[in-house]
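Regression test attached.
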Amino acid sequence: MDVYSFFIQLLNGLQYGLLLFLVASGLTLIFGIMGIINLAHGSFYMIGAYMAFSLSTLTGSLFVAIIVGIVLSVVLGVALEWALFSHLYKRDHLEQVLLTYGLILVFEELRSLIVGNDVHGVAVPAIFNWSVPLTETLSYPVYRLFMSAVCVVLAVLLYLLMAKTRIGMMIRAGSSNREMVQSLGLNINLVYRLVFALGVALAAFAGMLAAPVSSVYPGMGTGVLIICFVVVVIGGIGSIWGALVASLLIGLADTFGKVLIPQAAGVTVYVLMAAILLWRPEGLFRRI
Amino acid sequence: MRKSGSMLRRLGAVAAMVAAGVLLPGGSALAQGKLKVGLMLPYTGTYAALGNAITNGFKLAVAENGGKVAGRDIDYFTVDDESDPAKAPENANKLIKRDQVDVLVGTVHSGVALAMAKVARDNNTLLIIPNAGADDITGPLCAANIFRTSFSNSQPGIAMGKVMAEQKKKTAVTLTWDYAAGKESVGGFKEAFEAGGGKVVKELFLPFPQVEFQSYLTEIAALKPDVVYVFFAGGGAVKFVKDYAAAGLPKTIPLVGPGFLTDGTLEAQGEAAQGLLTTLHYGDGLKNPKNDAFRAAYTKAYKIEPDVYAVQGYDAAQLLIVGMNAVKGDVSKRAEMVKAMEGAKLDSPRGSLALSKGHNPIHDIYLRKVEGKENKVVGVAVKNLTDPPRGCKL
């Protein structure tokens, strides 16, 4: 592999990792901080992608679709938390798995009823629909660079929210001791509702942002879900910073694994996970 | 494209079929009751459209034969196989044991078809496969009672490998999902391309059904081969063709593949697919009298344009009719029936169709070029292509 290819592959790996982070950060909030095993997280990603498809077909603009989509997914998040998830905090993990697995089936069926089972493409917005020539044979789609930039901005915002703001403090306090926070007079239920909605919105936003490059197809949430759990486990449960580092690691391992050892492309990520867990059973980082 | 000799032969075959159909009533056929045909196809899910097209094609051929097969009416038993290999043995057994079908027709998904082939072999039920391309079914797992009227996965690959070698391409890179259909397709390409003097410099695989291609495109750009051969279908095909164009690769490295890369996906691929070369046993604008008649009849009956799957279903029924006519509708004379089917020369909308020793089609594979929303046939890649029935002991 020459130097050019190496750097382009590095770019590919980082770009994939950043997108993974966007989905996985929502999961680390819900799973890590609220303690809910949310198997339906991949479905939120799928719902986001389908919203991007339906709304952009309807309005003619992906950006309008994304703005409307974010509002809708926050509403969905609040409604789900109120109706279902708020009853689960004190139950054991098996019941959470049952409910969220059921949700996967419900969402897939609804998707099939509303949009159908066809594969759809989502058009790249016109201003990003061009490529930068990198070498004489290869160009790089600008939309992918734009996606990465958006992911970096969101990562920074999320970090600031969790580490530097009052609401971030409440969230962190709630995750270590729910009862104590409640007895201090804070409305922990409201905080949790917001965190859940944020998690749903992040996953849906990732789906919307990725729709033009991933295309939209049935079952697209399942693959994302598994890799997201890998990210959360490697990064350390509940750590935003850990999720970022783990996402980038996985992006790079996956990208270079595919090129250097194509025969084992499917397992590189899991070998990485096993190695890290042997080394640090709690994952790379503790909670922030 | 066509020689008058084969035309005459086909006419002869049709005449023989017609004669047999006309002469039969009055013989033993009337006493035999209805022929039970089990259609085990996907009627829901990703492949639902394919299952419906195959069914339509099958029923059209029967209708053109007077709605009967060798004088017998048909009772259809339909099962939705959901393209789920786990449910395949149960579904096939339901048709064979409960409904006691005389012949089983199916299916699209190779995994399901492999399971069906096993059940058919165990019960010695006649099976006609109208799509699934797994090489093994007409290779090591071949059986006297199992026929295929579609293709084997390696066939389009072999044809494209030959064409690319003839175009004096020296190096190639292949890319596909890491599963049977992809490996067989790429294997066919590699075999023919290297036999013609080319060299496959790298074979790339990614896990099914992943569609993150960016790192592979970078690798392809670094290797700079003369041509890239890929096998993808459905959503993966749409995304790969678009990503390949977005990476600016088509300017320097042409992309080719089997017909599945651009069949039924051109709407979604749009501009990115223009000019792509693919190989398949059917295509748009194919000119022969049978195809013209078939397309007109199909469009009239179902109000939609037929596709390659409809052709395969149509030929499945044509093959059954040949076998049934040979035994005057008496399915108990299995050996005689199989012999007639093995020797069948079908007049298919795709051109002439015969069967290899492994019961896989011997047919022309066409070279097609994407123009607008059509896969236009631009020539014959390989005439009467037969794939070697490896490991078949028939």
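Expected vs. actual: identical. The first helix of chain A runs from residue 3 to 33.
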